[in-house]
Specification:
A hairpin with a 2-residue loop joins strand 14 and strand 15. The chain is globular and about 55 Å long. The relative contact order is 0.14. The strands form 2 sheets. Strands 7, 8, 9, 10, 11, 12, 13, 14 and 15 form a 9-stranded mixed sheet that branches. A 6-stranded antiparallel sheet has the order 2-1-6-5-3-4. It is α+β, with helices and mostly antiparallel strands and 277 residues long.
């Protein structure tokens, strides 16, 4: 693992680098991206950095220095052997007072890169009762305010699942704490619309794009209970890629199902064509 902060490669990830008054720590006032690494190369980096900028601007903290972030990524990957791994880029509003109002000292930017094992090809999910607010101030933004997600995923882990999936305030299926959700009904692959309040996932967008010509794939909102009736259920995300789900709460499914398998084949074929699509 290597770490970089505000233009400086750190001696180690444990090296002190940011103020205890940083608003990312004080009130969770920041945005982030997690980027997959394949064979030492960041995957879909431009898409992730575009979303980082959009999240920061949507949060109102300013515009991150994308070129500096790219330099930080290169510096943290240099000298590492990363057949598969992840990069975490975090941008906060910087040091501020002990309260919600922001300071004026500029953004704090950090990058951490590390090798990591690939998630399993098949997993389980648990639905949770707490809704995502599709009309909230943070809807659709990838912010560091993840305490709610942490509580949800801990509940899922306690039930033997790897991810928690939540509804929105309308009771419609929304997303996982760190993933987008897709499901199969008949021959159709369905995922919630962005109006549901789910994050505009990079993997989600690529699955929609790459599968469109070979699978009937649509964006449609439906009650979260649809997961109890779907023929197949899938999680998609930066390190998960396309992950088949064999259990939703207490309901068992054959995984991967035929549509899931087809989507995985398309992904494997397309992902090697361009490391930064």
């Amino acid at each position: 693992m290597k770490a970089w902060a505000n233009g400086r490669l750190l001696e180690s990830p444990a090296t002190p680098a940011i103020s205890v008054l940083d608003h990312g720590m004080i009130v969770g006032d920041g945005v982030f991206e997690t980027i997959a690494v394949h064979a030492d190369q960041p995957f879909a980096l431009t898409r992730h950095l575009d979303r980082l900028v959009a999240s920061a601007q949507g949060l109102g903290i300013g515009t991150p220095d994308v070129e500096a972030v790219r330099e930080g990524i290169a510096a943290t990957l240099d000298g590492q052997d990363v057949p598969f791994g992840r990069i975490r880029v975090t941008v906060t509003s910087g040091p501020g007072p002990l309260g919600s109002p922001r300071g004026e000292q500029g953004l704090t930017t950090t990058v951490v890169s590390e090798p990591c094992p690939k998630p399993p090809a098949v997993s389980a999910i648990a639905t949770v009762p707490w809704p995502r607010n599709e009309r909230g101030a943070l809807a659709g933004l990838k912010t560091t305010s993840y305490a709610e997600n942490a509580k949800m995923v801990e509940r899922a882990l306690a039930q033997g699942a790897s991810e928690a999936v939540m509804p929105n305030t309308l009771g419609h299926l929304c997303e996982g704490t760190g993933s987008n959700v897709m499901y199969v009904v008949g021959e159709q692959l369905v995922t919630p619309t962005l109006a549901s309040g789910c994050l505009a996932g990079v993997t989600r967008a690529l699955v929609l794009q790459w599968c469109a010509g070979e699978i009937d794939v649509v964006e449609r909102d439906a009650p979260i209970e649809v997961l109890q009736e779907a023929d197949e259920v899938i999680l998609v995300g930066t390190t998960r890629d396309i992950q088949a789900i064999e259990r939703v709460d207490g309901r068992e499914l054959a995984a991967p199902g035929p549509i899931t398998g087809r989507a995985q084949e398309i992904w494997a074929r397309e992902v090697v064509k361009d490391i930064d699509p």
